[in-house]
């Protein structure tokens, strides 16, 4: 058996077409959706992601504002910028690219974003709301994963779902969304004993660990849907310089029922959901001012 490939670029193109239509309708009513992106420091991977986000905005008719700070930026500088963006009615979404340099207080920065503009869904109040099923904004990567599951017709209700990774930005919200959708969810991580015991039971397996090709075919249940959230740049070996996921694609593909590739899988869907959250925020703002 060889798995069906879940094409994140194709699904993104479809969803982004719909988002562009909503953005155009808002712009015609005098409210062009606008996303502000703050990038601190010169991490090359972050620069690529931010460039992709800004390009995605442009193509969908969403205005974007970019604020680049040097590695040496102070907490006060970033907080002052957030205060200004919070107060600006023309800005509908604010994203602070993570990770931040170590001398900055990430929690304080995320908490300073107006939750009505928290299109990443990382503010503690949004996290709490997600756990109660009354979210303001759903975090983009896990939301993109749910859309991909939906697109393949993978049943979530009653399914055994295993999430590897317990980060605040992927693993935990992913587990919460799957739980809200009726899956039986197991969260595995670096301290899990006998990881393969858990993964082999998974109808839905989500890998978000940051270790290249860590999940191999022998860890996958035949017919499972495998979602690879990892984005790793290989350092050495024959594929040095290439991107790969947390899943060993070739061996997993031979066992799974459906699988996402890297690149061209979850990454583009993350950006798509960011664009959607920005449009949702702008639609709410337009409604609030009667437009
Ligand atoms: N506040 C914040 N929000 C985020 O959503 C956020 C973040 N910080 N920090 C880092 C992660 C990572 N992330 C990606 C976005 C797009 C691709 C993407 O476009 N990937 C392409 C390839 C990119 C490449 O060529 O390197 C693909 O998979 O096909 C990947 C990763 C968003 N993140």
UniProtKB/TrEMBL annotation:
Pfam families linked to this entry: THF_DHG_CYH, THF_DHG_CYH_C
GO CC: one term?
cytosol
What gene is this protein a product of? Answer: folD
Q: Which PROSITE patterns match?
A: THF_DHG_CYH_1 (PS00766), THF_DHG_CYH_2 (PS00767)
Residues engaged in binding NADP(+): 165-167, 231
Q: Give the organism the record lists.
A: Thauera humireducens
Protein name as it appears in the record? Bifunctional protein FolD
Which SUPFAM superfamilies is this protein grouped with? Aminoacid dehydrogenase-like, N-terminal domain (SSF53223), NAD(P)-binding Rossmann-fold domains (SSF51735)
According to the entry, every stretch annotated as the Tetrahydrofolate dehydrogenase/cyclohydrolase NAD(P)-binding domain falls at 139-285
Similarity-based family: Belongs to the tetrahydrofolate dehydrogenase/cyclohydrolase family.
Domain Tetrahydrofolate dehydrogenase/cyclohydrolase catalytic residues, every copy: 6-120
């Amino acid at each position: 058996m060889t798995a069906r490939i879940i094409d994140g670029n194709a699904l993104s193109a479809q969803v982004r077409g719909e988002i562009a239509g909503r953005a155009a309708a808002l712009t015609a009513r005098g409210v062009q959706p606008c996303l502000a992106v703050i990038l601190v420091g010169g991490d090359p991977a972050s620069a690529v992601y931010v460039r992709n986000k800004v390009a995605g905005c442009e193509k969908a008719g969403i205005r974007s504002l970019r604020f680049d700070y040097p590695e040496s930026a102070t907490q006060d500088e970033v907080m002052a910028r957030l205060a200004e963006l919070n107060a600006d009615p023309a800005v509908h979404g604010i994203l602070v690219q993570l990770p931040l340099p170590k001398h900055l207080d990430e929690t304080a920065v995320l908490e300073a974003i107006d939750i009505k503009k928290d299109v990443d869904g990382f503010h503690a109040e949004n996290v709490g709301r997600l756990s109660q099923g009354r979210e303001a904004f759903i975090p983009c990567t896990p939301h993109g994963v749910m859309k991909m599951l939906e697109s393949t017709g993978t049943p979530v209700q009653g399914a055994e779902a295993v999430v590897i990774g317990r980060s605040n930005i992927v693993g935990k919200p992913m587990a919460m969304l799957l739980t809200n959708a009726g899956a039986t969810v197991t969260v595995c991580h670096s301290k899990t004993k006998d990881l393969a015991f858990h993964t082999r039971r998974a109808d839905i397996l989500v890998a978000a660990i940051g270790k290249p090709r860590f999940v191999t075919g022998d860890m996958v249940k035949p017919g499972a849907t495998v979602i690879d959230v990892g984005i790793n740049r290989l350092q050495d070996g024959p594929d040095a310089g290439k991107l790969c996921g947390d899943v060993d694609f070739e061996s997993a593909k031979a066992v799974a029922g459906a699988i996402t590739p890297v690149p061209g899988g979850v990454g583009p869907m993350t950006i798509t959901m960011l664009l959607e959250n920005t449009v949702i925020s702008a639609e709410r703002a337009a409604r609030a001012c009667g437009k």
